[in-house]
Amino acid sequence: MARHLILLAVSATFGVSAHSFLHVGQLIIILIFLCFLYLSVGLSVKALSLHLVLMGIFLGAASFSDHRNNSVYHGTESRFIITFTDPPNIDGNSLKGFVGSEKGERLMLRYNITTEQEKAKLSQLLRIGLSCPAKGNLQVPDKNRNENSFDYQRYLLRQGTHWIFKADSISFRECQEVGNSIVVSIRNLRMKGITYISKHFPEESSGFVKALIFGDQTDIDEVDLTNYQRLGLVHLLAISGLHVSFLTGMLFYLGIRVGITRENMVVAILIFLPIYMILSGASPSVVRSCLMAMLFFLLLLFKKRISAGATIASVYMALLFFKPNMLYDIGFQLSFAVTFSIIMSSSIFLQYPQKTMQLFIISSISQFAALPILLFHFFEVSFLGVFLNVLYIPLYSIILLPFSLITLFIHLLLPSLGQPLISILNFTFILSNKAADAVSDLPLASITFGKPPFIMMTLLVISLLGLYLTWDESFEKCKVWCGIMIVLLLFQYNLQRFSPFGEVQIIDVGQGDSILIILPFNRGNYLIDTGGQITFPIETWAKRRKKFNTADDIIIPLLKSKGIQHLDKLILTHADSDHMGSAKELIENFKVREIVIGGWSEEHYRDLDFVSIARDKKIKMTVTKRGDHWAVGEAAFSVLSPYEKEEDKNDSSIVLLAKLGGLSWLLTGDMGEEGERELLSTFPQLQADILKVGHHGSKTSSSTPFLEQLQSKAALISVGKDNRYGHPHGDVIGNLEGDGIKVFRTDEDGAIIYKYYKSKGTFRKTLP
């Protein structure tokens, strides 16, 4: 029965995914799956028909869900009655979170808090079920503006949210309670628990305690969270089967010990689990764990038995039918993939009597099961995670989780007795986090593979299934599948080395510049500028937990998605913060072999943090000037500027003339009209097929004589959406279009990508 239900779950997955991603590749995979069912599993034509019908049912469920997911608003509305339906998130001077409107539509609220007093008042006032009048405007969420980046618009749509509501004012004095259902009461209890931990537990441990007890990771230090993610330990911070098993087991044991009958304890646990599901945040892993436990105890109550495989398949299909969009949730994918793999491989690790060996094999199985998902979403995996989980799983399941619950409970009853326990718990978390931080710097802590193409994802999944199915049957077959998987991973790791394609990307970093150049066959990876933001002094209360940074949030994920393990050159055109403001974060978190700066501008960089970090990391620093050049294969680069000391930093920009993909590229940094005139007088024959427009298209660059001389076919403008400077200037756009030059601009087009093979290539925009 379990086997058939699992196969039906696979068909259900095909049905849901076909609604969004039906293409030739997927049709081929479905056909192969049906052939496998007929030839290897031995299903009859009637049974195959059942699978096809199930695919149709789940395709219909996904279509119906999508049909219902529409908005009643037009985007012109300005007055709303909003109800807080989810825990509001106050971060510095920002209030955001999901709210419901008076028309029953879900909105993403964003509101700027103006004073510290208002922030303190909101922290006490806000709760779920509070309904308030508000004024503001609706905005369409942004799509992903860079290749392989997070698509926020799609994420919100899959949660039934079409608009971001930017509130100018919220009348908190006129707020009213709207109903007080059991669910709302439980969710408000969760908020009170989170607030209590924030108030009484130290900063180093409060975020972890909230994650373990209430499933809230928002206050975990960003560095610690990144370390846990890189090492494959972040699942320990998500409430899952580990927590549910511990709590239900503890409750069942305590109930029996005090004299409650088994039947009554089963009923009590069946009542407790839905409450705990809400109390812990109802994430996909929590829902999966609680539903599996509820199904187990419900059948136990009626003295029925069902295998773990049948249980997980039933829960999976039930969730997918009622909420098809859960399929695209990373937590949902990881939770079911890992749990399914452990259940299906139980006969493997049960062969080994030693608990440590069992834990090591379970850890290996879990890491392998998560591998395709992690590669698809995060582009890297940690092989040290297999060994670290052997240490950290017992640490969290036996020590930190129970200790956190006991400490919170005692502190609620007897604060004076609970305080020493909090200190011990805090010390334990500090030690474990320091250990994770130290290990995260080791060579195998995180290995970048890049985002696998569809065929590679398919082959990886097939090889993993083959490995699980043959592990217990034939050692020789197991070695074959293991060898296939290793070959696939090695190929994916070296995919860039085998690629004959080159790329030039104008990365959308907002109001700044960043250009990525990838040469064929991994002959060179160059980044010209890092983007960056101008920062202003801000009061302590208004500072947010995580500041946006173009290196961490845009550039490094893009590099990893392309399978780039290092940068050969980081070229900083000049010392403006919108061109090199994220250099520090980039070289801290990514391998850079050489940093190139312009001649006569060394004093502008001397006191900057990234220079001392580069020195400590022994990164080569090169000063370049007019006349320098280098070539790699068919690609050639010539430095046209700087040629002398300039008073204006913009005119001291490094200007490069590059030959790439059969085109000549003039990359001008922020060079202005004065620099353009000097360039024309020195290089009277200068022409370029592609012009990277200087200074984000401001009126101080791209003069008419300059454009007439270059005879460019296309112009690229790196500029922020709705920027405060009014870039690009209308006169510049008029001059470019008047000369018949095709204009690409990141504020309207997102990242601009030119992919080429030998001397031919094509441009494409990230935004449609």
TrEMBL record:
It is found in: Cell membrane. Keywords: Cell membrane, Membrane, Transmembrane, Transmembrane helix. The chain crosses the membrane at residues 28-61, 233-254, 266-299, 330-352, 359-379, 391-414, 421-440, 452-471, 478-495. GO terms for biological process: establishment of competence for transformation. GO terms for cellular component: plasma membrane. Pfam families: Competence, DUF4131, Lactamase_B. Residues 511-721 form the Metallo-beta-lactamase domain. It is a multi-pass membrane protein. NCBIfam families: ComEC_N-term, ComEC_Rec2. This is DNA internalization-related competence protein ComEC/Rec2.
